[in-house]
Amino acid sequence: MGCNLAIAGVTGAVGQEFLRILEERDFPFDSLKVLASSRSKGKKIKFKGKTYIVEELGKNSFAGIDIALFSAGGARSKEFAPAAVEAGTAVVDNSSAFRMDQEVPLVIPEINAEAIAGHKGIIANPNCSTIIGIVPVWPLHKANAVKRMVVSTYQAASGAGMSAMLELENQSREILDGKEPTCKAFPYQIAFNCFNHNSALGPNGYNEEEMKMVKETRKIFDCPEIAITCTCVRVPVMRAHCESINLEFTEAITPDEVRDLLSTAPGVTVLDDRRNNRFPMPIDASGKDDILVGRIRQDESLAENRGINIWVAGDQLRKGAALNAVQIAEKLL
Fold it and tell me: Catalytic residue among 3, 119, 128, 242, which?
């Protein structure tokens, strides 16, 4: 059964990834409407052998639309998603606008697909770092409750959009040519450098990205008591995030038990080759749907074998954004 589909923010990095994934997965649709800001109005988008003309996103864009995939930024989601819902459209929103709204399900299909059924028009797609980090933690948490998570992220340029990816490319050329790097998308040089995640710092000294991971994980796991602390950093990588995750469990757990649990976990691939010192890298995860997991080892600083360290890599544009949203849309069908 097909649906009438709209994509809001189609010209952005995630919008373009929506199209690739919809085609790859042969998502069933009867009609497609492509929407973006006034700057992109009139642009031509080719998809599945057909040309679509980009329309300006507005409050009247959603008549007859069954499902809308939104990746147009939080401000536009707040402005236009309620109008879409009013028109009878189910919205899957990739921004942070509705994630912590108690009325809005925050969904990773491998973890809490059942939450979709309770939606009131909007389903929120979690933050990319949250998705990439907790898809592999969930099967472990189900088997042996996680008491505490310590996460350090190594986040790709793609998380800040197409302009940031181009900036990484351009700065690399500029620096190699002996020129000063041009900084527009990021406050600091991203090529050959890393810096604190470029989201606003709160009064507690944590940036917004770090607090998103804390709050979203608790909501998705339905586990408000889980202790989480994060440090989020931008690195000069194009499109795959990596994360170092330290887990403290309620009961003892071994690296072999972790490998066994992850070997059958949906959306996860174990790449843990100690003999050859071969573990997940951004270039392994780029273009892949699964989250890659390696460096699985005991945290020897914790008593009674209750600690485990893992290292994960995931494509920020795919599972971190567009793929997760399309999976939600598939469940809606």
Answer: 128
Q: Are 97 and 81 in contact (CB under 8 A)?
A: yes
Catalytic residue among 119, 141, 197, 241: 241
Please compute the mean of the pLDDT values over residues 201-230 and round it to a whole number.
97
Q: 222 to each of 107, 168, 210, 217, how far by Cα in Å? A: 11, 37, 18, 8
119 is catalytic: no
Say whether pLDDT at 1 is over 70: no
- Tens of pLDDT, residue by residue over 38-81, are 999 999 999 999 999 999 999 999 999 999 999 999 999 999 99
Place of tokens 């599945």: 48
**Is 183 one of the catalytic residues?**
no
Q: Which residues pair with 268 in a beta bridge?
A: 291
Domains along the chain?
A: 4-125+321-332 (3.40.50.720), 131-316 (3.30.360.10)
Tokens 């199209």 belong to residue: 19
Across the strands, what pairs with 312?
243, 293
Q: Distances in Å between the alpha carbon of 92 and those of 97, 154, 207?
A: 11, 26, 25
